[in-house]
C-alpha cells in the first residue's frame, strides 16, 4: 500500500504525460504524415517522430530545471532573509534580530513539513493560507482546536508532547503556530504581534518580518484571509478609551497586512468567549451538536461595509427573542429561567459598544479606506470564567446596589458553540475571494499566450485530418442510402394516395424507419472523437433525412388522422357537443383554422386509448404519440377536406346556442376541481345516513357544481366566454354566426342559467336521496338520537358544511373581499328575487349564482349561515327533548298516557318537521315515525304486560270463562261467582284495564267499537279483541245497572198456563214460590206470581214441581241456578221489550211463565255469555 502513492505520482508526473503526448503526436505523424509535405516517406516520418521526441523531452527538462531553481531560491531566500523590512536593520536590537531568526526557522520547518506531506510541486498554493491575529488570550488557539478541522500532521511542542496538527513555536504561541489541516493552512500568531505592548521594537520587527516572509514565500497569493480574534469581554467591560485604542490597534495590523503584502485580503472579525455573557450557556444549552456547529453572526455583501452592523445585530437579537419563549417553556429551574430570560437583553446591551468598536476598527474614512471586512461572528470555544452580567451591573448602578454583594454567575465548562461551520464553510469557503497580485496576473498572461500558441499548433495538426474526414463522409453517405432504402421497403405495401383507411398501427414500421434515419447527432457519433470539419456532409444528410420524415408524417399519418376524424364525425352526428369538437380538430389538421397542438394531442390520445387499449398496445400508442408530436411541430400542409360533410356538421351543431357551447367547454375544463361526496363531509358520521337510491355515500357531485368550481372555474371563465366564441368563428364557417346576435352580457346570462339549472339539479337529487339509516328498535333510536342531537351532531355538521356549497356567491364574495362581513344575506337574496319577479328588483341583472343562493336560502337560513340566529339550534333542542322522552318510555307505567298528553313528543317533532326545509323536514319526519313506532311498541308491550301480569284481567278472565257455565253452556262447572263479579263489575278487572290501556285508542260511540291510532301510534288491540271488550261492556251494563258493585237483575215471574194433567205447578226460589193451581170443572185456575232478584239468597236453590209429580223433577242449585232454569226451558219474546215467556217441560208435563224484567230482555239471552271469549291482545 505504501507504494501506491509513488506509482500514482509517477504515472501522473510531468515526464509521464510528456512521453504520452510524444507518443500520440508520433502516431499522428505516422498515419497522417502523407497529408504533410516532407513526411510522405517512412524515413521522413521516422525522422519527424524522433525530432518531436527530442523537442518534447527538452521542453520537459527545461521546465523541471526552472522549477528546481525557483524552489531553491525560495528556500534560500527564506533561510537568508533577515526579516528587516527596511534599510535601518542595523539599528534593530539584537533581540529583534533573534525574533526574526526564530520566525524564519519556524517558517522553513513548516515549508519543509508541508512539502513532505503534499509530495507535489504545488504544495505552496494547493491549500489556502489564513492568518489569525488578536490580543493575547483572545482564544485563537482554542478556536482552532475546536474548529472541527482535521490536522493530520503533528510536531513536538517543546514539552515532550505533540501539538495536534501544528508546528508549535518556542514557548507555545510566543511566535507563531502553523496548523496544517486537510482544507487549509492556518497561522496562529502571537497575541503580542497584535498589541505590540511587551516590547514595541521587538514585536513590531517580528510582525513585519513575518509579513515579509509570507510575501516572499507565496508571492502570487500570500494570504487568503485574515481572522481577527477579539475577546468579547475585552470590548464590553473596558472603558471607551481602552475600547477605541483596541480597535485602532486592530486597524493598524490590518493596514500593515494590506500594504505589506500588496493584496486586498478579506477580514473576518470573530468575537470569542461569547459564553462570558450571562445566560449564554443556559440559553443555548438545548442545542445539539449540529445546531452548535451553526454560524452566529453576519456576513456582509462583497461591496458592503461595517455600517450595516447595527441593523444586522438587531436581527440577531430579534432571533434570540423569537427563541426565548420556547426555551422558557423547556427550562424548569428558576435560576436558569431567569438567566435565559435576560440573555437577549444582555446581548442587546452590547450593541453600542460593539458598533463603536467595529466602526473604529473597520470603518471607512476619507484618508483611511476601510479594510475588506467580510463579516462579524460570535463564538464560544470553551466555557470558562465568570460571565459578564451587564444587565445586573446596570441595574445595580441604577439602584445603588453594592455589586460586590451580587451573586456571581458560575460558568459551566461546556462545548464549542458556533465555531465549526464558521471556519469550515464561511471562512475557508471564501478562500478564492482574495484579490490576485499583479505579478501573478503577469504570469497568467504568459500562460494565456502560450496556450494560444499551442492552439495554433494543434490547428495546423487538425488540417491533417481532412483526408480521413473525407473518407468518413463517404461512409456516412453510403450508410444513409442504406437507411433510406430500408424506409422505402416499408412503403411498398402501403396505399399512399388516396388513403382509404385509418389503420394507424400498419404505418408505424414506415414512420419508425423514417424517424430512425440518421440525424446530425447520429452522424456526429460516427466520427469517434474527431471534430466535425467544413467538408462534412452531416448537415446536408440530416436535412434530407428530416424532410423525408416530415413527408412521411404528412403523407402517411396526417391523411389517416383526417380519415379517422371523418368516421368519428359521422358516428356522432347526433351529439352536437362531440360533433363540434371533432369538426374543430378536423379543420385544424386540414389547415383550415389555427392549430392548438395540446388539444389535438389530448383528443388523439383519448381516441387511441379507446381503440388500442391494454398493455400490449402501449408501445404502439407511445410511438404514435411521438409521431403526432413531430407532425404538430412542423407547418401543416393544406389538405383536401370533405367540404360536404363539414357543411352538414356546421348546420347540425349551429343549432347549439353559443351559451351551450361555452358552457360545455367551461364544464369540460373543471376536471382539476375535486368532486364532492357526503362521505368526505360526514366522515365517521356517515353511518347515520344512507342513500334511498342505494348508491354509496362515496358517490360524488362533480367538482364543477361546488363552491370551488363556481369560484375557480365558472367565474374566471365568464369574462373570456364571448372572446372564445368569436375566436372560433372559423369552426362555424361564418363570422356572423359565431354569436348569433348575442351580446356578451346575454351570453354570460345564458351560461349562468345553464350552470344554475344543473347545479340545482345535482344538489336537489343528492339532498332528496339522503336519508337517515332506518332505526332498529328502541335502543338504537335512543343511542342515535343522542348522537344526532349532541353538540357534535353529524347532522348539524353536515348541514352547516353543505350550505357552504349551496351559497357559492357568498364564498366567492368573501374570497374576493377577504372579509366574511361582506357575505350576501341569503334571506335578502330570496326577498330580492321576489321583487325581481315584479320588475322592482332595483338592479340591472342578478349576480352570477344568486339563483342558487335564493333556491337554497331556507336551508341556509336554517343553519344560521346568513348571520341570523340559527333555527337549527331549536331543532337540536327538540331532538334532545324527543330523545329524553323516548329514553323514558320503558320506565313509564302507561306509555299511552304520554301519547294522549298535550306534550306528545312525536306530534311536537312532526309539527316542527312541517316548518323546516327539505331535507331536514324529511329527516325529522323519519325520526318522528321511528319514535311513534317505538312508542307504539312500548305501548303494546305495556298493554300486554298489564293484561297478563298478576294484577291484570288476563288470567282472571281465563279462570272465569274458560270451561265454565254460563260462557260454556255445555259445561257442568259453574263460573266462580265472586271472580265473575271481580272480572265484569264496574271498575273491575276488564273495565279498569280497558279504561287505562285501551280507551284512548277506541271510539265507543257507534254500535260497533272501532280502534284508531294516536298520532302515528297504532292501537295495541285487534278488532276481534275489541269486540270482546265491547261484549264485556254489555255484560257490565246489563248485569250491573247503575254501576252497582254486584249484579242485580230484578224479575217478576207469573204462571200463565199449564198442561191439563197437572193440577198444580210450584216454582220455588228458596222460601219464595210462584204457584199455579188448576180450577174446578175446567175453570181457569189460580196463579200466584213472585218477584225475585238475581243474585240473591233465594236464587241459589230453585225447584220446579208438577202435581201430580212429573217423571223428571227440576232441581237447580248455586249462584247460576236461575240461568240453568232458563236454559232448561224455551224463551219466547212477546213483542214487549221487558217481557218474555218461558215454557218448561218435564215428560208430558208443561208449564208457561211470564217473565217481566226491569232491564232489557237481552239480560236473559244466554248468547250474552256464550258470545264472550277472553280477548287476545296483539
Task: Walk me through the structure.
Keywords: Membrane, Transmembrane, Transmembrane helix. InterPro entries: IcmF-rel, IcmF_C, P-loop_NTPase, T6SS_TssM-like, TssM1-like, TssM1_N. Pfam families: IcmF-related (PF06761), IcmF-related_N (PF14331), IcmF_C (PF06744). Residues 201-454 form the Type VI secretion system component TssM1 N-terminal domain. Residues 1053-1158 form the Type VI secretion system IcmF C-terminal domain. This protein is of the alpha+beta class and 1178 residues long. It has seven domains: 12-77; 93-433, no CATH class; 471-656, no CATH class; 659-680 and 702-772, no CATH class; 773-934, no CATH class; 937-1042, no CATH class; 1049-1170, no CATH class. It contains 47 helices and 24 strands. The chain has an eight-stranded mixed beta sheet. A five-stranded antiparallel beta sheet has the order 19-15-24-23-22, with helices on one face. Strands 18-17-16-20-21 form a five-stranded antiparallel beta sheet, with helices on one face. Strand 16 and strand 17 form a beta hairpin. Helix 2 packs antiparallel against helix 3 and helix 38 (872-888) runs antiparallel to helix 40. The longest helix has 39 residues, at 42-80. The two termini are 104 Å apart.
Secondary structure topology:
Blueprint lengths: L3 H8 L2 H19 L9 H39 L13 H25 L10 E5 L6 H6 L9 E2 L5 E2 L2 E2 L8 E5 L4 E5 L1 H5 L4 H18 L7 E7 H5 L3 H22 L5 E6 L7 H4 L5 H4 L4 E3 L9 H22 L3 H15 L2 H12 L10 E6 L11 H10 L20 H8 L10 H26 L2 H26 L16 H8 L4 H6 L12 H34 L4 H14 L7 H15 L6 H15 L10 H11 L4 H11 L9 H5 L6 E3 L15 H12 L2 H7 L1 H4 L11 H26 E3 L4 H12 L5 H13 L1 H10 L8 H12 L12 H6 L1 H7 L8 H17 L6 H6 L4 H11 L4 H29 L4 H9 L15 H8 L4 H10 L3 E2 L6 E2 L11 H17 L9 E10 L5 E6 L2 E6 L8 E3 L1 E5 L6 E7 L6 E4 L3 H8 L1 E4 L5 E8 L2 E9 L9 H4 L8
Helix pairs in contact: 2-3, 3-4, 4-7, 7-9, 9-14, 12-13, 12-14, 18-19, 19-21, 19-24, 21-22, 21-24, 22-25, 23-24, 26-31, 28-34, 32-38, 32-41, 35-37, 38-40, 40-41, 42-43
